[in-house]
Structures are given as C-alpha cells and as structure tokens.
Design a protein that fits this description.
Aspartate Aminotransferase, domain 1, alpha/beta, globular, binds D-malate, seven-stranded mixed β-sheet, single chain
Length: 410
C-alpha cells in the first residue's frame, strides 16, 4: 500500500478558515432566522471595477477568435502585466526591477507555500506568532518540523512573538535563522513596519546570510506615506529578500486569482557543498516545471488595474474598505474594547473583553450578535486573547455588526 506523507498528520484540526466556516454553517442551520454577518476570512465583497471587468471580457473575446487566440503563456507571466507593475507600482517607490525578476502567479497563498520547494529542509525557519497560518502549516507539511507541543508550537520552527509589549513587531531570534517570514501590513494584527524597522531586518539578514520572505499582500492599504510598500525600498534588500504581492485584496481577485513574486537576480543561497547559487534561477526552474502561468484573461484584467482609470476605480474600492476599517476601529474603541490595526491595514485586531479566550469570544459574537470574526488563537498561541475582524464587508453589514457588538457589550 502506498505510504502517505504523514507530516500532514502533525497538523492540528482543519485549516483555520474552513473550520470557522464549518462552525458558522452549523450555527446558521440551527438558527435559520439569524442574519449572520461575516467579518471572518478576509474575503472581498465589492465587485471587480468597470475597467478591470472590461479588460477581462475583452481578453475572453480574444480567446474566441483564431487570430487573437492565446494558448500557453510564458510561465513567468506576460510582459504586458510585468511591465505595468514595474512601471506603475515599483518605480514610483524608487525600486528598479528587471522583468526577469518578477513571476506572475495564481495567487499569493500558493506562492508562499510553493517557495519552500527551493529551500533545503535543514534550514532554520522563523515565523511570527500570531501568523498567517499558511507559513506555519506548509512548513509542517513539507517535513521541516516535529510534532506540536501542548501550546501549538512545532518543534523545529522558531516562533517570534508579536504582542502588545513589542507593538506586534517581531524581535530578532536568539538563534541564527536562515529563512524569516515577515508580513507587513500584517495579517492578522494590522501592524505596519517603518522603514527603520525593515532596515533592521534587512541588516540582520545580510549579517546572518538569511533570506527574508516578505509578504506584502496588503501594501495597497497603506495610507501613511512614510510607511514602505516594498522591502526593496530598503537598501540591500535585493540581496536578502523575496517579496510576495497579491491582487486578491487590492483589486478584488480573491476568486479570480493572481499574485506575484519578486526574486531579485542578486539574491543567492548556498548549495549543500557551500557554493553560491542564484535563487532566481532556481525559482524559474521550479515555475517552468510545475506551473503553466496564470490565465491570459486574468493577467489582462490585472494589467487593467494599472491604467489611469483602473487605478482610480481600484483606489476608490480600497478607500471604501479602509472607511469600513475606521468604522470598526472607532466603534469598538468607543465600546471600550482595546483595538489595534485598521489604520494602514484592513484588519482590526482587538483584545477580547474580560480576559475571554479567543474561541469563547468567537462563540459569544456568533451566538449573541450573529457576527463572525476570527479567533486570534487560530493564528498562533500569542494570538490567544485576541480577535480579528476584517474590513472587507459591505458597508451596511459593517455598520450593523459594530452596532450589534456595541449593544451586546454595554
Ligand atoms: C485571511 O483572512 O487571512 C485571508 O483572506 C486568507 C488568505 O488570504 O488566504
């Protein structure tokens, strides 16, 4: 009988969001009259913008005619999209990139997971705590860890607590680590990193020959002009960092699927025998073997985000979500809750009242307010006693959810 990859058996329960979905479905089935408002998973609610939609439709029409039909595209993505992103999204930051340094994909979740293919299992890997669960679980799946302890920490991973004391910004690990995941603006805490703080990590990585995996999926939600959108705004970062970006939240592509990875040509790792090797070459090799590119209409739709009209519309939707974030943040603060995030990020990270556990607060909000959020402990042990609300709901629901919570907590 074929043997399975039993690293998967080390994982606790189900993946966080399906588990929440399961509980919410059970509640809704038992309470069919309850009007449940979902601010749990960060899933967008606003439709694609007109300019993006038109580009999407036009590209589908291209596929209907022999002379404009497209078959396999380049595995790394079409130049029309790569060039648009470099020109419109990186150049204004003062970041110069070559087209060969960008890899378009079908989303950032897959990229964050797939990147592990090109790193040796005996690397020491550091992740935040709390953290986007994909970083943790994919390291378990690939076999980098032992079992989890009673708190939920897996043996073999280095956890960097992000808590109120350190302003939700990780301290450098005591031991030397080879690969470090950083996510700013942060999911789940909504914390952001200043340029000085990112420089600290770049200096750490350069000094320790480590590689930073920088998840910038939420960069479009930064409102403070002093906050960096890309780790490459820090000098030296091209020698030590891979960056991930996503169209999911930026342009409403959670269902459409498009993301990108930057692997600078200057970035090197070492082989098992100690020679330097280009990480860009390795990723290209991986992608050309295991991936056939995001679809042509999706990439056309993504490119339309960077047209003048497309960006104006996209920015208006981002502003809409950030207004939701303000309503949640201010409403819940007024209700006496301690609230973080939601200023340069679409997530609000709140402290559960009266020392409740995250899951108890989840149950209370679900059953008493019919509002769904995400228990902080689902993102890691240091998330215990916290709770995440997403700003991606529609406005009426957001206002109603805040009112229900305020009334309940009175
Ligand atoms: C979240 O709610 O944390 C995100 O939507 C998950 C994701 O982007 O995969």
């Amino acid at each position: 009988m074929a043997q399975i990859n039993d690293n998967y058996l080390k994982l606790k329960a189900g993946y966080l969001f399906p588990e929440i979905g399961r509980r919410v479905r059970a509640f809704a089935a038992a309470n069919p009259d309850a009007k449940v408002i979902r601010l749990g998973i960060g899933d967008v609610t606003q439709p694609l913008t007109p300019t993006v939609l038109k580009a999407f439709h036009d590209a589908v029409d291209d596929l209907a005619k022999a002379d404009t039909f497209m078959g396999y595209g380049p595995e790394q993505g079409y130049d029309f999209l790569i060039d648009a992103i470099i020109e419109k999204s990186y150049k204004p930051l003062g970041v110069e990139l070559k087209t060969t340094e960008m890899f378009i994909s079908d989303g950032s979740k897959c990229d964050c997971a797939n990147i592990l293919d090109i790193f040796a299992l005996d690397n020491t890997v550091a992740i935040g705590d709390p953290v986007y669960p994909v970083y943790n679980d994919t390291n378990v799946m690939i076999g980098r860890t032992g079992e989890a302890d009673e708190k939920g920490y897996y043996k073999g991973l280095v956890y960097m607590p992000c808590n109120e004391e350190n302003g939700f910004f990780p301290a450098y690990p005591k031991e030397k680590v080879d690969v470090i995941y950083l996510c700013f603006p942060n999911n789940p805490t909504g914390a952001v990193a200043t340029k000085e703080q990112l420089k600290g990590w770049v200096d750490y990585a350069l000094a320790n020959n480590s590689i930073i995996l920088f998840d910038a999926a939420y960069e479009a939600f930064i409102t403070d002009p002093a906050i960096p959108h890309s780790i490459y705004e820090v000098e030296g970062a091209k020698k030590c960092a891979i960056e991930f970006r996503s169209f999911s939240k930026t342009a409403g592509f959670t269902g459409v699927r498009c993301g990108l990875v930057i692997v600078p040509e200057e970035l090197e790792g070492t082989t098992s025998t100690g020679e330097k090797y280009s990480v860009n070459k390795l990723w290209l090799r991986r992608q050309t073997t295991k991936f056939n590119g995001a679809s042509y209409p999706v990439q056309k739709a993504a490119a339309a985000v960077y047209t003048d009209e497309g960006w104006k519309e996209t920015k208006a939707v981002i502003d809409y979500y950030m207004e939701n974030a303000r309503i949640i943040r201010e409403g819940l603060s007024a209700a006496g809750l301690t609230v973080y995030g939601g200023v340069n990020a679409p997530y609000i990270w709140l402290k559960t009242p009266a020392g409740m556990t995250s899951w108890d607060f989840f149950d209370k909000l679900l059953t008493e307010c019919n509002v769904v959020g995400t228990p902080g402990s689902g993102f890691g042990p240091s998330g215990e006693g916290f709770f995440r609300l997403s700003a991606f709901g529609n406005r009426d629901n957001v206002i109603e959810a805040v009112e229900r919570i305020k009334k309940n907590l009175k």
